[in-house]
Amino acid sequence: xxxxxxxxxxxxxxxxxxxxxxxxxxxxxxxxxxxxxxxxxxxxxxxxxxxxxxxxxxxxxxxxxxxxxxxxxxxxxxxxxxxxxxxxxxxxxxxxxxxxxxxxxxxxxxxxxxxxxxxxxxxxxxxxxxxxxxxxxxxxxxxxxxxxxxxxxxxxxxxxxxxxxxxxxxxxxxxxxxxxxxxxxxxxxxxxxxxxxxxxxxxxxxxxxxxxxxxxxxxxxxxxxxxxxxxxxxxxx
DNA sequence: AACCAGGACGTGA
DNA sequence: TCACGTCATGGT
Length: 237
Description:
Endonuclease III, domain 1, two-stranded antiparallel sheet, DNA-binding
């Protein structure tokens, strides 16, 4: 993948390059029952490129929220295993999570890491979710909830509730600072503002762009090797 | 065998 | 505000 690193390049142009190269990502992935034998506990996580009708129901809505918490600083595959375990135990549900023994939740979500903290976060969120009674949570409401920071709040609003809320993350900061568009020290909110001001305010675009940045970031901006001119090397050839 | 992953919180300056 | 330690499993 060769990104145009010209500083005149607009953020939207970067989005189009990534989209053309990687195609639709179909975020947020959703856990579904599967018939294969190699999937964990009869469930597996699937992306849905080409379909923007997710979440399809309130179960998936809650599942996306839970996944956003479980994947905090964690590889998605590990978070997905935790979700699959919860689904197999039939507790991937707000009411059941509120009533579940925390020790059992801990054991189910162990693969996602940080299981002591995340089990608490899940129970806190489940209670908050029930209190919403179907309403779309505001960003501030989410931020006021213990365990939910800016990225998780924006992920929940963008992917579980289809709100036009740009999500930025470590990959976004690495990529845009590497391309010289922002400072590597930029704060979450400033980075989000930069993206919003340079992109059309479109929910589907936000959903794809963040997913594309993660796909691209996993390849080129993982670890600390992005300090080396990975893409420039490609361009200079 | 280190190093990292789709962060957030608690603490002390 | 802000830098820093902590949380923890699984894949490479």
